[in-house]
Amino acid sequence: MHIKLRKYRIRISKSYFRQNWGFPFIVAFLLLLIIAIIYLVTYSTQLAESVANYAYYSLALGVVLQIASFLKYRKIKQP
Fold first, then answer.
1. Total domains in the fold of the chain
2. How far apart, in Å, are the Cα atoms of 21 and each of 27, 31, 36, 64, 65?
3. d(CA 56, CA 51)
């Protein structure tokens, strides 16, 4: 039995990063949250709490920047 696996490449253009300022901070939030979960599983609760706080700050900054970039780059459609 032969199974064909397709390789997919995710391509993100440079303009995506220029128009979505909060994207790196939201990705950082996800990575920091995973690190916090790992610390929590290993019973390092103080370290997990500290990393989770930084993750929350990263998420808050990312959301604010996403709103700002949305307001700057939104396209107004004329009827």
1. 1
2. 12, 17, 24, 9, 6
3. 9
Token output for 30:
């996800």
CB burial string 28-46: b at 16+ within 10 A, e below: bbeebbebbeebeeeeeee
- Measured CA to CA, the distance from residue 54 to residue 48 in angstroms comes to 10
The pLDDT value recorded for residue 19 is: 82
Q: Which domain holds residue 66?
A: 22-73
Q: Is there a domain that residue 57 lies in? A: yes
Contact 33, 7 (CB under 8 A): no
pLDDT above 70 (res 22): yes
